[in-house]
Design a protein that fits this description.
Elements: H1 3-16, E1 39-43, H2 49-56, E2 60-65, H3 68-81, E3 85-89, E4 103-109, H4 117-122, E5 124-135, H5 151-155, E6 160-167, E7 170-176
Parallel strand pairs: 1-2, 1-4, 2-3, 4-5
Antiparallel strand pairs: 5-7, 6-7
Helix pairs in contact: 1-3, 2-3
């Protein structure tokens, strides 16, 4: 990611400060799918709202983002809610940060990079839940940050797709790795 992009995200996150814990968009109404324990990875976590929500629900969370200001806001939110999250600064354009183990839940919300789809899939533990929400061309005029119709379903075809929806400029996918 260009330094200019990092600075833009830092400025945005610093202005917004700490957020409010909330579930990932694709998991709303499907909280029964969330394991009660285990490890979770929040990719491109921004200000950490999802990461902290996952930690509040009993998961051991690793949250990754390019923005130090976003990570600081997330750390402030986690401290205020008295939960632990491991915050990792990483430029996802340079590749997926290496981890020694796999995750029971992998969330990627509002960040789209098809080159990372294999890494997201590979980060899942057997039976692990993948939760992805991206902008979509479906119901929108398109653009370079928007997924093509069917992109998520094709990218994660080797997983058990629990739910896949496209429309109104968004796409979301819930899928489970084979046990």
């Amino acid at each position: 990611m260009a330094e200019q992009d990092r600075e833009r995200w830092d400025t945005k996150h610093a202005a917004l400060g700490a957020g409010t814990p909330q579930p990932p968009d694709a998991l709303r109404g499907r909280l029964d799918l969330l394991p009660a324990t285990g490890r979770a990875l929040d990719v491109a976590c921004g200000r950490g709202s999802v990461a902290v929500w996952l930690a509040e629900h009993g998961l051991d969370v690793v949250a990754v983002d390019v923005s130090p200001a976003g990570l600081a806001a997330g750390a402030e939110l986690a401290a205020g809610r008295e939960v632990r999250v491991r915050w990792v600064e990483a430029d996802l354009d340079a590749g997926f940060p290496a981890e020694e183990s796999r995750y029971d839940v992998v969330v990627c919300q509002r960040f789209r990079d098809p080159a990372l789809y294999p890494a997201l899939r590979d980060a899942l533990a057997p039976g692990g839940l993948l939760v992805v929400t991206v902008l979509s061309e479906v119901g929108d005029s398109g653009g370079r940050f928007r997924a093509e119709p069917g992109e998520l379903a094709r990218a994660f075809a080797g997983l058990e797709i629990i739910e896949h929806h496209e429309g109104d400029g968004g796409a979301r996918l819930l899928a489970r790795a084979p046990a």
